[in-house]
Amino acid sequence: MDFSQSLTMLLLTASLLLIITRHLARAVHLLTLQSLALAALAAFWGYSFANHELYWAAVLTLVVKGLVTPWVLLRLLKAIKVKKEMEMTLPMRLNLILALLLILVAYRVAIPLKALATLPVPHSLPVAIAMIMLGLLLMITRKKALTQIIGLITMENGLYLSAITATGGMPLVVELGIFFDLLVGVILLGIFAYRINQTFDTLNTDTLQSLKG
């Protein structure tokens, strides 16, 4: 297994571990590991294929997703003093089974799509699809707003991995637009989660049902 495949498997492993962890700080650290692996993968592909656009992708991923986003989430976690996710919509064992099934589905779905990939790298497209589905599963099965934010960013990481696999890198102006939107979104969602906790003394998004008229 070469370095590229190792990083791709690290992305998948971090995404899978997010499904089975209850500790919120650990979930943020796993998201950080996932983002750092994505940045390293983009840099390695930039070097391997002499593609300078992928260097920009690596730098922006490192700064926005590997440094700024975890910092915002950890500050939020410190402010709300919540350490563990106690409530889930599905049992942990069922979550894990669903996650493994989604990974198998991702590999099956990716078979006819491999011809569309610009970069000749194995596993990247199925792992990208798996990350999208695992992020969605995380958002559906968790009740804490912070964990749902992590699920959303995991989905975005999967979409970004599929984009650079399919296109071989995007123009810098497009990269800047994507990462600026992501950064603003994370900050706004963090403020929203903080306000939920301040108002309802919980991060459980089910409490928003009480706002219905």
From TrEMBL:
Its main location: membrane. GO terms for cellular component: plasma membrane. The keyword Nucleotidyltransferase does not apply. Gene3D superfamilies: 1.10.287.3510. It is a multi-pass membrane protein. It is found in: Cell membrane. The keyword Transmembrane applies. It comes from the Bacteria. InterPro entries: HyfE-like, NUOK/Mnh_C1-like. Keywords: Cell membrane, Membrane, Transmembrane, Transmembrane helix. The chain crosses the membrane at residues 55-74, 94-111, 123-140, 149-170, 176-194. This is Hydrogenase-4 component E. It comes from Carboxydocella sporoproducens DSM 16521.
